[in-house]
């Protein structure tokens, strides 16, 4: 990920030009005053015209600078956000600290945008202004130290003119952020399902698009703010031109002295303000540097197309020997010397006491957990030799509590994939969901807070979702715990009849009738 882009360099050039035009504007005043002292009407008119053109050019560069600086800062936020999302998806072990990711995305990105990237530009502007001001003062050989008269109430009134529109834009930002937070919650809570599906890139695109929508709303607000700030600048420069113009004619008419006009404008502030900008900016950048480094530490450097590569492999068998899993509390789960072997197209029931590691075993094989020793082989090759997404494309995994996204039931079931709808409806019939979903219209209803689905219906959707992925191996982790006995029996009969499917089913309830083998796990 590149933390510098074209907006950054356009902004730097604009900052340099703004600082240069500020000094040129001051120099134009000096020449204008000289023309007044020489009583030259033609020179006075010429320099006054040049002063007006300088003002217009200055305001143009000022607007360009503010516009592109906001785009740069927002794009940096998008780049950091994209890096975090890619890191989350490509993290083989899964997101163990989901709240940490949520905090990074919700809070730290905005902090870094404001305190690091924005102040990076502030420091650059301060450096440009300071250097150019020093050269200008030396070139003039003297300093006029009386401040410019400004009608101060105008810069105060302008923000109130835009306050209603800015409030409306801020409300839009809040609404869009709320939508994004809902999508982000779905993404984090359903991460295991997403990474196990063939729709991982689609979910990634939806999440990135939601954040981009937030950024676009922020850009609209910042553009209006930039325009308001430009108008505030206009009041300053227009007031200066007005006083110099009217006062100049008064000098030519002998009404006032040249010194009173020269005193209107001074560049002395160009020395004080940049120093304050640089000091404050560096302080804020230093305070946010650790946050930025923390955000970028685990950013994935892989290209987007990495997620699209074909990683399918053919499953022939699974062997597990001398497996020991290291739990975070320092204890171990020790499995039987030999678990399996698991042959392709066979159906196995995994049973064991609580704490014997049944669910953990499934998560180890699908590479969601990695702190283990022992031998795990797929097709005679160690599990470590396979890529994370090779395993995800091979094995469909259904947890005890499948997560449903805040989306339509159809998208929840298909995970945005094109599916054979005839097969889908046959599964709905087999799983006893036709009463709840009698037609396509019912599938287009949205799942959300207050949904009338029972726990058993949610589990059925989770299994149907896995079957529609059409993977070679299916892992069920207590996936029938909330389903009534009769429905559970009929669904299992269907699964056991699927000749091309390899099934590993963790359950406390089932007897194992109809399965090709029962694997019993007991702690050693």
Give a quick set of tags describing it.
524 residues; 15 helices; five-stranded parallel sheet; five-stranded antiparallel sheet; 10% strand; single chain; elongated; ABC transporter transmembrane region fold; 2 domains; Rossmann fold; alpha/beta; 10 strands
Estimated helix fraction: 55-70%
Number of strands: 10
The residue ranges in which pLDDT falls below 50 over 5 or more consecutive positions are 141-150, 300-306
Number of helices: 15
The rounded distance between the terminal residues' Cα atoms is: 48 Å
- Beta-strand content: 5-15%
| CATH topology title of the largest domain | ABC transporter transmembrane region fold
Class derived from helix and strand content: alpha/beta
How would the global form be characterised? elongated
Could you say how many structural domains there are in total?
2
The ordered string of helix (H) and strand (E) elements is HHHHHHHHEEEEHEEHEHHHHEHEE
């Amino acid at each position: 990920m590149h933390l510098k882009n074209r907006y950054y360099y356009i902004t730097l050039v604009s900052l340099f030009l703004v600082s240069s035009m500020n000094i040129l504007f001051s120099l134009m005043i000096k020449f204008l005053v000289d023309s007044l002292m020489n009583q030259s009407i033609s020179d006075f008119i010429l320099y006054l015209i040049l002063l007006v053109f300088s003002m217009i050019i200055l305001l143009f560069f000022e607007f360009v600078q503010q516009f592109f600086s906001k785009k740069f800062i927002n794009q940096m936020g998008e780049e950091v956000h994209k890096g975090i999302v890619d890191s989350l998806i490509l993290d083989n072990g899964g997101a163990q600290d989901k709240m940490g990711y949520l905090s990074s995305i919700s809070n730290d990105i905005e902090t870094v945008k404001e305190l690091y990237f924005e102040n990076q530009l502030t420091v650059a502007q301060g450096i440009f202004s300071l250097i150019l001001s020093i050269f200008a003062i030396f070139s003039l050989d003297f300093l006029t130290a009386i401040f410019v008269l400004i009608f101060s109430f105008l810069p105060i009134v302008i923000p109130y003119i835009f306050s209603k529109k800015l409030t409306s834009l801020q409300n839009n930002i809040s609404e869009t952020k709320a939508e994004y937070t809902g999508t982000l919650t779905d993404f984090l809570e359903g991460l295991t399902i997403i990474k196990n599906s063939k729709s991982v890139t689609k979910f990634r695109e939806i999440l990135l698009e939601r954040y981009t929508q937030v950024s676009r709303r922020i850009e609209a607000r910042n553009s209006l703010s930039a325009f308001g700030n430009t108008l505030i600048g206009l009041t300053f420069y227009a007031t200066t031109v007005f006083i110099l113009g009217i006062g100049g004619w008064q000098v030519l008419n002998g009404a006032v002295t040249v010194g009173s006009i020269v005193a209107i404008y001074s560049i002395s502030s160009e020395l004080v303000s940049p120093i304050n900008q640089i000091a404050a900016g560096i302080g804020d950048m230093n305070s946010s540097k650790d946050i930025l480094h923390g955000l970028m530490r685990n950013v994935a450097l892989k290209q987007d197309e990495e997620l699209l590569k074909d990683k399918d492999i053919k499953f022939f068998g699974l062997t597990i020997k001398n497996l020991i899993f290291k739990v975070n509390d320092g204890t171990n789960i020790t499995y039987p010397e030999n678990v399996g072997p698991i042959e392709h197209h066979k159906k196995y029931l995994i049973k064991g006491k609580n704490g014997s590691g049944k669910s953990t075993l499934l998560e180890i094989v699908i590479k969601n957990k990695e702190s283990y020793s022992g031998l795990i082989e797929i097709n005679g090759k160690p599990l470590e030799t396979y890529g994370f997404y090779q395993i995800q494309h091979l094995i469909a995994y259904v947890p005890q509590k499948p997560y449903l996204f805040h989306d339509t039931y159809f998208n929840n079931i298909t995970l945005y994939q094109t599916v054979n709808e005839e097969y889908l409806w046959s599964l709905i019939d087999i799983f006893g969901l036709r009463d709840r979903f009698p037609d396509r219209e019912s599938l287009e209803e949205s799942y959300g807070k207050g949904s009338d689905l029972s726990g058993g219906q949610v589990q059925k959707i989770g299994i149907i979702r896995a079957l529609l992925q059409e993977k070679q191996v299916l892992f069920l982790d207590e996936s029938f715990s909330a389903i009534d006995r009769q429905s559970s029996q009929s669904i299992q009969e269907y699964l056991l009849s699927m000749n091309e499917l390899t099934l590993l089913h963790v359950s406390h309830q089932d007897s194992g009738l109809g399965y090709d083998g029962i694997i019993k796990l007991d702690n050693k």
